[in-house]
Fold these 3 entries.
Entry 1:
Amino acid sequence: MPEFKGNIRSKLPKAGTTIFSIMSGLANEVGAINLSQGFPGFPVSEKLISLYHDALRAGHNQYAPMPGIFTLRECIAEKMEDLYSCVYDPEAEITITAGGTQALYTAISALIHEGDEVIVLEPSYDSYVPAIQLAGGIPVHIPLQPPNYFIPWEEIKKLITQKTRMIIINTPQNPTGTTLTAKDMLQLEKITDGTDIIILSDEVYEHIIFDGNEHQSVARYPKLASRSMIVFSFGKTFHATGWKVGYCLGPAHLMKEFRKVHQFTVFSVNTALQHALTAYMLNKENYMGLGEFYQEKRDYFQKLMKGSKFKILPCLGSYFQLLDYSSISTEKDTEYAIRLTKEIGVASIPVSVFYSVPHDYHLLRFCFAKENDQLEKAAERLLSI
Ligand SMILES: Cc1ncc(COP(=O)(O)O)c(C=O)c1O
C-alpha cells in the first residue's frame, strides 16, 4: 500500500497494543499456559448454544430494536428488582450493548464534555482513560495501594471541583480482585450528595463474589442509583466473552443521552443472541451459581500456590488472583512477567500497566477462570521457582 503522506494527528498518541494482546501473543508464541487475558477456559452451556441455534433458525436475523429486544430488557429489569430491589423501566432505562466495553465507552462519550474531570481509581480496567480522553475529558487518577486497595474517600472529596462530572467505580474489581463494601457506597453517596456528579459503575463481575458477601451494586442505594449508569456483561456471566453482549442501566434522562450515541455507533446488537439470552436468563440458576463456581477455583488455585515463593493477596471477587513476587526478584513487573512467560511457561499481566503512571509493587495478575488441569500445570511451574 503506498503510504498516505497527509498530516495525521493521533487522538491517542500514547496508546499502543494492549498488554493483553501482547501477553496472549507471547504465551502462544512460546507455548506458555495463558493466565494473562481474562477469559474463561470453559465451554458455553450446551443449552445456551442450542437456544442460539433455535433463535437463528426461527428467523431472528434482522436488526433488533435500537435499545435491545424488549423481552430481554424486561428480564433484566426483573433481575435487578430481585437482586437489588431497584426498579428499572425496560422501556426507558435499559439498553443492550455490544459488551461492557462499548457500554462504558458510550456512557463516557454521551456524558463527558471537553474539559470535564473524571475521577478514576487505579489500578483500573484499561478502556476507561482512553474513552475519557477521546471525549475531551480530563482523567483525575487516584492511585490505590496493595494489599487491600482501600479507597481514600476523604482525599477524593478534596479533589472534587466544579469540573468534576463523573466518578468511575468497578466492583468486583479488575485487576485487584477487591470489592466495594456497603461503607464504601455510603461514603460515595456522601461525597456526591448535592453535586452534579454522575457515577459510572462497572459491575461486569457482579456474580463473581466470594465468602458469602453480597455484591454492592449502586442499584441497592436509591440516591446513588439515581445518578448512576451501570454496566454489565453477559460475556463474564455466561463464559462467552467472544459474544460481546452486555447492557447498561441508568435513569431515563441519562439513558436518553446514552442512546443518542448508541444509535449512531452500534445501533443494535445481535438479534438472535438476544432471544437466546432472554430464554436462558429465565432460569436463575444459570447465573446465581457463578460465585460458588469461581470461589472453588480461587480456593483451588490458592491451595496449589501454598508453599510457593509468591505471596498470595486477598481475592474477594472477580476471577483474578494477584501474586507478589518480591521475595523472588527485584525486576520490574513488566520485565518479570515476560521472563516468567518465556522461562517458566506461565503468562500473567503485570499490575503496573493498570496505572496511568506506573506504580510497581512487584505484583502479577493471574486469571484463574481455567480448567483445573491448567491451574495445576501453572502452579507446578510456579512452584519450581
Ligand atoms: C472491569 C471490566 N469491565 C469491562 C470489561 C469488558 O467487558 P466486555 O468483554 O463485555 O466488553 C472487562 C473485561 O475484561 C472488565 O474486566
Note: The pocket of pyridoxal-5'-phosphate is lined by residues 38, 99-101, 125, 170, 174, 202, 204, 233, 235, 241, 244, 246 (CB under 6 Å).
Entry 2:
Amino acid sequence: MELSAVDLTKRYGSKTAVNRLNATLTNGVYGLLGANGAGKTTFMRLLCTVQRPTSGKIVLDGKSIWKLGERYRDVLGYLPQHFGYYPDFTALDFLLYVAALKGLDNRKAKKVSSELLEEVGLSGESRCKIKTFSGGMKQRLGIAQAMLNDPYILILDEPTAGLDPKERVRFRNLISAFSKDRIVILSTHIVSDIEFIAERIMMMKAGEIIHFGRPHEITSRISGCVWECSVPTSRAEQYTVSLNISNLRNEENGRTVLRVIADQPPVAGAVKVQPNLEDLFLYYFKEEEQ
Ligand SMILES: Nc1ncnc2c1ncn2[C@@H]1O[C@H](COP(=O)(O)OP(=O)(O)O)[C@@H](O)[C@H]1O
Ligand SMILES: [Mg+2]
C-alpha cells in the first residue's frame, strides 16, 4: 500500500502549519523530525483524518482518505500528542473501552488487550488505575491502545515523551517487530529517539519536509560541515557562545573536545568528521532551539 500527501496545506488563519507538503510512504518506519512548531502534529492530524486540509489531499492507493472514511480508520492506529486518559479506569478497562469504540468483538478485545499489555510491559499493572501510573506508563498504555486494531498504518505523535531509557529500548524493539509490512510514522523533536529505528527520516521545518531519505543519505547533505577540535577546558565555555556546538566532551588532560557545525574550520587544527542526524538537526534548527 502507498500513502501519499499531495500539495497538502493546512492554515490556521494567517498561520500556515503545513505548507504544500508532498510525500509518498510505503512500508517501513518513518521518523518525522522537527523542532517544536514545525508542523508535525498538524501533519499527523491530517493523516489521521482528525483535521481537514485547507487544500491538497492525502490518498491511500490513489483513493482519498476522507472518501474512504471508516474503511481507512479501520486500518489506522493513532496516538495523539496529548492523549486523554480516564484516571479511574484500570489499564485493562481502558483498552477494552477503546477496543469497543474500534468495534472489536469482546473475546478478541480481551485477548488482544492482554497481549498488548504484556508487550508494553504493563501486564503486572493491568488492574491498576491509570491515575496511579507514571508518565512513561501512561505513554506505554497510549501506544498499546493505538495498536489494538492491528493497524496497517500506525501514527504515533511524540511516543517517546516521558519514557525512561529502559522504556525507550523496549519501545524501539516493539516498533521494529510490529513494523514489518506496515507503515509506521513516529514524530519527535529528539533525534536519538528515531536515529536507530527509522528507516527513513522526514525532516520538517516551517510546514515543509526539507529532507526525506535514509539517515545516512540525508546526513551526507552536510558532509564537510562538522568538525572536531580540542580546546583547553577553561576556554570551552567561551566557544559555546560563538560556535554551533553539537557535542562537548571533557578529557582528563584539561582539554575539551568540541563537535562543531560550521561551514569553515572553526579553529586551527579542527578535523572534519562524519555528520550524524543530531548534527543535521542542529544545522537546521539552531535559531529555533535557542
Ligand atoms: N489549532 C491551532 N490554531 C492556531 N495555530 C495552530 C493550531 N495548531 C497548531 N498551530 C500552529 O501551527 C504550527 C505548527 O504546530 P504543530 O503542528 O503543533 O507543530 P509541532 O507538532 O511540530 O510542534 C505552530 O506554529 C502552531 O502554533
Ligand atoms: Mg507536536
Note: Residues 224-273 form one domain.
Entry 3:
Amino acid sequence: MLSLWLRLCKLKLDKHLQGMHLLTATVYRLIQITDPHIRADSEATLMGFETRKGLDLVVAKISEDTTSPNAIVVTGDIAHDYSDSSYRTVAEAVLAFDCPVHWCPGNHDDKATMAVVAKDLKLGGDQIQLGNWVIQLLDSAVPGKVFGTFADTELAKARDLIASHPDTHLMFGFHHQPVQQGSRWLDELMIKNGKAFMDIVRDQPQVKGLFWGHVHQEEDQIQDGLRLLSTPSTCVQFAPKSDGFALDRTMPGYRWFDLYDDGHFETGVVRIDGIEMNVDFDGDGY
Ligand SMILES: [Fe+2]
Ligand SMILES: [Fe+2]
C-alpha cells in the first residue's frame, strides 16, 4: 500500500516537473541592426543626419530593453566610407553586449576590410547556432553595384543548409530585399535573382523567416507561410511605397527576435525617441 502511494506521489511529481519544463522553455534573443552608414569622422552626416549619433542612440535603446542578447547581427551598409575605423566603430559598439556579433555586407561595404576587422575583433562567421535554431547570413552584395545578387555559392549554401537540417529551425538574413516592396526606385535595387532564392526557401517547413536591411524601413509580411521582415536603419529612413527617392520622418531603430525551442518566434521593431530628426528632406539621394 505504501509503495503504491509512493508511486502515485512520484507520478504527480513527474507531471509537475514536465509542466515546469514547459513553462521554462528556452528562448533566444537575437538583435538585428542594419545600415548604420558610419564614416571615420564621428560627426559625419548622411542627408544631414549624424550617423554615429544614430548608432549610439540605437545601441543605448537596445541596452535599455535587453540586458543580455544571445547574438547580434549587422546586415550591411556598415561603413559609408569603407574605412577600417568605421567597421571597428560599429563592431565595438555592439561587442559591448558581450555576446557573439556577426555581420554581412551591403552595397556600401568593402568585404576585404570587413574580413580583416572581423578576424581582429573575433566576430562570428556567417552562421549562428542558438539551440535548435540556425540563422544563416548570406552575401547579396555585388562589388560596384547598388542592387544585389546571390552568387551561385550563396544559393547553394541555402539549398545545402535546408537539405542537411530537416529538423532544425532556420532563418536567413542578408542585406538586399529578395522581393518587391512597392517602392519603384528601391524595387530596382533589390536582389536581381531574388526569385531563384525564394524558390529555394519557399515551402520548406523548417525555414521560418527571412530578414534584411537596405530599404531603411520596417515591413512584416507573410508569403507562402514565410515571414518576410525588413528593418529600419540606425540612421535615416526611406519613405515606404515611394516611386522616387524620398526620406521618411520615422526614427532610427532595430529589430529583436525571440526564438523558441518549438520553432515559433516573435519579433518587433523598436525605435529611438526624444530626438529631433535633423534630416535634409529635400535631398534627392546620396
Ligand atoms: Fe543603406
Ligand atoms: Fe544598401
Note: The helical segments are 2-23, 51-65, 84-95, 111-120, 152-164, 184-187, 194-201.
